[in-house]
Amino acid sequence: MLWKLIKIRLQGMFRRSVNRGGKGKKSTAILFGLLMLYCLGAFCFMFYMMFSALAEVFWPMEQFRWFYFALVGLMSFALSFFLTAFTAKSELFEAKDNELLLSMPIRPRLIFLSRMAVLMGTEYLISLIVMIPAGIAWFAAAGFNAVTLVLYCLASLLLPVCSAGLACFIGWLLARLTARARNKTLVTMVFSLLFLAVYFVVYFNANAYLQKLLQNYQAVAGGMMGWGFLFYWYGAGIASADPLLLLGFAAVCLAVLALTVYLLGRSFLKVTATGTAKRRKKSGAEPPQLRPSTLSAALLKKEFKRFTSSAIYMMNCGLGLILSVIAAVALLLSADAVRDFLRVFSFLTPTELALAASIILSFLASMDIVTAPSVSLEGKNLWILRTAPVPAGKILKAKLQLHLCLCAPVTLLLSVAAGIVLQSDLPGWLALVLVPQLFVLLSGVFGLMMNLLLPKLDWTNEAVPVKQSMSVLVTMLSTMLFVVLAVMGFLFLVMSGIMSATVYFALVIAVAALWLLLSWLWLCKRGPKRFERL
Amino acid sequence: MLQIKALTKRYGEKCAVDHLDLHIRPGELCAFIGHNGAGKTTTLKACCGILDFDEGDILIGGKSIRTEPLACKQQLAYVPDNPDLYEFMTGAAYLNFICDVYGVGQKERLERIGKYTRLLELEGQLDQPISAFSHGMKQKLALIAALSHEPKLILLDEPFVGLDPKASHELKEVMQEHCRSGGAIFFSTHVLEVAEKLCDRVAIIQNGRLVRAGTMEEVRGDASLEDVFLELEDDHAVETH
């Protein structure tokens, strides 16, 4: 029965990933697969480089070889835990078929176990991204050793069990908290922001942490033997082929698994039932307020309500908004430090410097992709707009308006902060204000176009169109890639004196403007018809 | 009011609706009956402009849904069998949105929404988010939204499913009142007794083909609608074997 449950869940996930709706499903699936492969490759390469540096340091020190494996274990644990902790809540307690399965003569613990097994599968996939490059890096430095390889593989099979258990507990905690909260969106938002804050702090300081680690590895290793005993057992067990330590490590991992299944399996029915029970406010005696609006205003209000009612939509497609505000405040607070840093670019005129800064600001603007899942999010509600006497163009316009209403003011705030810090001249101010706004418009128009070309309407969980759809992926990657290429071009063409900065930036802006123009023309000419055919 | 001319819709090899002709005049209440998968929902969806079709035409108030979709949609309201509404809105916000879309004035929207929420017993519930509504409540809300802009033609797909007996009764009254005041209703149902008691016209569809249509008396003769329907089904079973 357990295997059947797992199989059904996996089949659902596979169909969700491959069946992306619309025409050209096969080519879309291939494109999606290639993109995934590229992302996997990029991550593996990044971890290989990182662990190669560590292996070079720790391989010659026999008493600290265990520390290398402990760090690999810690990284794999942290990454897989971070990436699955938020999906744990929806995977375990909010699956659409929970009610159906719970009504059948199947033990709730078995259903929970099947959900957890799928989550664990995800953990294994994520940990492979760390484990494979880290293993290659070690054997490249230390030479091949069959015993170490076998122990490394065996111990690495147990580690995701532990992180999955912890992710399940976080999912359970979130499910309990949000079930009782009046404003679920707010609670989820606060948790997501906290998590993101931790992530960004770690991400932006990763290099500094690595340097500190290499400088103070003895102290850190000493600490790990205490608070991080699990990783010490894991690392030392592999490095010194100590069966006792490995057995201890295995016992802890399996104990976590058993405890998770026992405790959460017991409360699975209760949490699921609380989650599906509808909370209703006390009925108001007063008649509801019904104020007329124009059609355009009504459509825009509808889009705004959808955006603000979904934490997952806000967090994934409006991340640039939060980062832009943080960046604006950070720029103003550390104006002197920024000016000191910019002395490196003293060969640029103030206008050229402002142009360069405007391209960097555009990177943040291109992270706002509010329109990219907006058509897909209509999902099963699409019939409402399709049967209403509303021109498709107006519906699309409202989606784009929401994007601009949210992103343009925030990006402007960032531009003003940058202008103040850079003490720009008039052309510089114009560049700082207009270029990021061009990218705001570009990501909005291009995102909408991509969503019309690659819609995903048959979703059962909002996370699918927002996080796992091709339109979101293509929009975000292409606009960000453009900015990255623009920066690289600057380094190669301007810094080496092949091209003047003014000509280069004019070229970059012209390409972006052309891209916007072509997307805009497509949207005006073919967009409405495409929407009507969905 | 609604003229379906040789409507044909194919899904690959399968012909879901095959040269279907039907004419529903103002004031008529027409039931659309047929077995599961007969083509009822496909026909209704094509009539309201959700589904494109391969051949034929559909005229609403003399205008083609293909060439003048907005003018047609302005005159009609559609309620699907499983109304998926905007769960991020409250009931009131949803009704307000629909009234904005159809350009209903403030006075009229307050009057109509007040009237139908009282009638379908949804009073005091409209400030709740739709995500907290039961299936029946969503069905009622979709019906109120459909009635709020006083459409000339109402298309309903299994409107009585999920409604409590009182709401079901009230809906029948509302449907009859709508037709008495010159509107037309075309609805699908599996409840033959309801069709028999409520409607003045009936259309029976079988595997995409319209096999019988006319006034209730013409279709059933001396027998009951159930007998006619079952007889047609039996005939069809014999033919296909």
How far do the termini of chain B sit from each other? Answer: 39 Å
Order of helices and strands of chain B: EEEHEEHEHHHEHEHEEHH
Number of strands of chain A: 0
SS-based structural class of chain B? Answer: alpha/beta
**Beta fraction of chain A:** under 5%
The portion of residues forming beta strands of chain B comes to 25-35%
Number of helical elements of chain A: 23
Outline type of chain B? globular
Protein traits:
heterodimer, A: 534 residues, mainly alpha, 2 domains, 23 helices, 80% helix, B: 241 residues, alpha/beta, Rossmann fold, six-stranded mixed sheet, four-stranded antiparallel sheet, 26% strand
Task: Give a short summary of the structure.
The complex is a heterodimer of chains A (534) and B (241). Chain A has 534 residues and is mainly alpha-helical. Helix content of chain A is 80%, strand content 0%.
Plain-language structure description:
The complex is a heterodimer of chains A (534) and B (241). Chain A is an all-alpha fold. Chain A is 80% helix and 0% strand. Chain A contains 23 helices and no strands. Chain A has helices spanning 2-18, 25-58, 65-93, 98-102, 108-142, 146-180, 184-204, 206-215, 217-226, 229-239, 243-276, 295-309, 311-317, 319-333, 335-342, 350-365, 382-387, 392-422, 426-453, 463-467, 470-494, 501-525, 527-532. Chain B is of the alpha/beta class and 241 residues long. Chain B has a single domain, classed as P-loop containing nucleotide triphosphate hydrolases (Rossmann fold, 3-Layer(aba) Sandwich), CATH 3.40.50.300. Chain B has helices at residues 40-47, 69-75, 91-102, 106-119, 135-148, 165-180, 192-198, 216-220, 225-240; strands at 2-11, 14-24, 29-34, 55-60, 63-64, 76-79, 153-157, 184-188, 201-206, 209-215. In chain B, a hairpin with a 2-residue loop joins β9 and β10 (209-215). Chain B starts with a strand and ends with a helix. At the A-B interface, α12 and α17 of A face α2, β6, α3 and α4 of B.
